Amino acid sequence: MTQTLEPGDHLVDPGHWRTLPDLAARALGGAVLAANDESFAEKESLIRPYPVVHQPHTFGHKGQLYDGWETRRRRESGHDWAIVRLGIPGTVSGVVVDTAYFTGNFPPRISVDACRLDGHPDLTEILEADWRPLVPVAEAKGDSVNEYAVRDTGRCTHVRLNMHPDGGIARLRVHGTPVPDPSGFADLPLDLAALANGATVTGASNAFYSNPVGAITPGLPASQADGWETARRREPGHEWLDVRLAGRGTVRVAELDTTHLKHNAPGWASLEAHDGETAFTLLPRTKLQPDTPHRFVLDNDRPATSVRLHIYPDGGMARLRLYGRLTDDALAEMRRRFDAP
Ligand SMILES: NC(=O)NC(NC(N)=O)C(=O)[O-]
């Protein structure tokens, strides 16, 4: 990782697993598929993208309202569980179990399991899958961000969050590294900068307003908060964002999307590719429009492993898409990674 960080940056601890993307995030396609019980509060809240909200002494038909997943008080042995499909399958390096506002009703212990089921399994197949522990039964604190590092190198498609014996959890975040299924690429050109295809943000000069990984997430940007936005730059120079491509490949079309950046879009941008020690220009400094998805056809036939997006002088980028083809070696390496146990 080569982050250059400044106060207020979202990538607060470079190299820490919490800076890896949340593979369970709804924005990446995550879903809470099932839970054995959700008597007090709905399981779907576990992967809501928003900060947890709470208003004490607000009672619905079932009791106090909580923003999270909450089960009834258990009167028999056993434990409660919820199953989450990862939006992007991958290896998991750490799990966050946030019990915000659950004080008299948090689970004293949690555990997390994972399984790998490629394709499109139904719920019965998922329930009967070969589950393995990611986080063995561990203590949890109430009204706290509980962090658990994970040592597991296998590809995970689903996780199961367990509460021992019962209680409530506000949010579950599953931080890790995408491991795409290259058979889905079907020899077509692809977005070499897409998180879902295995690309990653490895650095940003400034990440004041948002986590820059937003710039390579799927779908259209929902708002100005969804993408990369820097603080106003008060010194000479300019801001930049580094993306390690899904694999070594040749970028032929670049999409620089300033959607929602109406009064804070960069004036200009350029793209610089890196292949090992060699650097070359993909897109020379080019004028940008606010709130606009720009598409540039590039005069390029050289493969690269990473790309630096320069923006002048500051602003951000809602989405960066770099369409092209992987080299045969990169595709073979991706197949090896996918096939690894
Ligand atoms: N949602 C609830 O009302 N939960 C509980 N009670 C309060 N007051 O929060 C509980 O676990 O019994």
UniProtKB/TrEMBL annotation:
Name of the protein in its database record: Probable allantoicase
Keywords of this entry: Hydrolase, Purine metabolism
Matches recorded under Gene3D superfamilies: Galactose-binding domain-like (2.60.120.260)
Pathway listed: Nitrogen metabolism; (S)-allantoin degradation; (S)-ureidoglycolate from allantoate (aminidohydrolase route): step 1/1
HAMAP family named in the record: Allantoicase (MF_00813)
Class of this enzyme: hydrolase
Alphabetized GO MF terms: allantoicase activity
Organism listed in the record: Glycomyces algeriensis
Gene that encodes it: alc
Domain spans labelled Allantoicase: 29-178, 198-326
